[in-house]
Specification:
Layout lengths: L7 E6 L3 E7 L5 E8 L3 H4 L1 H17 L10 E6 L8 H8 L8 E5 H10 L4 E6 L3 E6 L5 E5 L11 H16 L6 H10 L8 H4 L13 H9 L3 H25 L3 E5 L1 H5 L1 H13 L6 E3 L5 H12 L4 H25 L1
Parallel strand pairs: 1-4, 4-5, 6-9, 9-10
Antiparallel strand pairs: 1-2, 2-3, 6-7, 7-8
Length: about 325
């Protein structure tokens, strides 16, 4: 297989996993891949570096290429809320990659670029963590949220998972009864929530891992559990307030929502829309992004290299549509 003269990698780097996409200079997608989380504020620089560049090497290897063949690596990282400077980029790349060929920005920024494609818009992320970004009609950028787990990461999977586990623990000690306790005990095959302590405070558990417990809250809420429902409603309201803040800053009326919580929790989405209405923002148009965040990272790379933006975007959209149709065909064939 002949290696393209120009290889671009776009990365959507979250707290627990990352998605990568490889294209040539025309926007034609060559391959996609996944890797571990790259939030170095949460897991440390060494682990984040290894997770990304191991995944990038595997992605390029699928095309008989090496890391040194990559013309530009564009990274949207949940550890950032603004473009990374030269020193931080060099520290992140270490000895694995040439920092002058690495472009780093926040995951919210590349997600917004993929969603709004240069137009005014608001992007809200509710995944492992939470964050928001907006761009106004003049191209000015705004950010909100993204405070990390030490300050709660309101509205995120971490926030929901932590509150759900705390509610289960409180129920065990005479607090409000909730189905959450039984669901946690069943999941971990334990007799008490207290028996989880060695896991929660063990060397292999990170606070961000609490985000994996968010589906437990969603399951309980779907079964009518009042405590779980309140947890999800409170988290969704936090995202709505973040949206209101970004709307006040930008005036943008199209809101793009992204992340595992928005993608998988019907209750959270309904509560979010209800909260927007209560804030007088029911007129905002809410939808998921048409392009995935890693495609936004590719668009940033194309801009940096001076590639024709309209032609690159058109080819990229065509490639993504073809990929989605193939994925649907495989799913329907099962």
């Amino acid at each position: 297989m002949e290696v393209s003269a120009v290889l671009l990698i776009g990365v959507d780097g979250g707290g627990t996993h990352s998605r990568l996409i490889l294209s040539d200079e025309t926007g034609q997608i060559l391959a996609t891949g996944e890797g571990g989380g790259i939030n170095f504020n949460a897991i440390g620089m060494e682990q984040a570096r290894a997770n990304l560049f191991d995944a990038a090497e595997a992605l390029l290897g699928s095309q008989n290429a090496r890391l040194s063949d990559c013309s530009l690596l564009s990274v949207g990282s949940s550890a950032l809320d603004a473009p990374a400077g030269e020193a931080l980029t060099a520290e992140f790349c270490g000895s694995r990659f040439a920092p002058e060929r690495c472009l780093m920005d926040s995951d919210a920024a590349v997600s917004l670029l993929a969603a709004a494609r240069g137009e005014a818009g608001i992007l809200l992320i509710a995944g492992t963590g939470s964050m928001g970004a907006a761009i106004d009609a003049r191209g000015n950028r705004y950010v909100g949220g993204g405070w990390g787990y030490l300050l709660g990461d309101s509205g995120s999977g971490f926030d929901i998972g932590r509150r759900a586990l705390l509610a289960a623990a409180e129920a065990e000690e005479g607090g409000a009864p909730t189905l959450l306790r039984a669901l946690f005990l069943r999941r971990f095959e334990l007799n008490s929530v207290r028996a989880l302590l060695p896991v929660l405070y063990g060397p292999d558990f990170h606070p961000a891992d609490l985000a994996a417990f968010a589906p437990v809250a969603d399951c309980a809420a779907e079964k009518g559990d009042a405590v779980a429902t309140e947890i999800l409603d409170t988290a969704a309201a936090a995202s709505a307030r973040l949206c209101a803040f970004l709307y006040q800053q930008s005036g943008a009326e199209h809101v793009y929502v992204y992340g595992g919580v928005f993608e998988h929790s019907h209750r959270y989405n309904a509560a979010f829309l209800n909260a927007l209405n209560e804030l007088g923002l029911g007129h905002l148009h809410v939808s998921p992004p048409l392009l995935p965040p890693e495609a936004g990272a590719l668009l940033a790379a194309a801009h940096r290299l001076g590639l024709a933006p309209a032609a690159f975007l058109s080819k990229l959209e065509q490639s993504i549509e073809i990929m989605r149709n193939k994925a649907k065909s495989k799913e329907n064939a099962r």
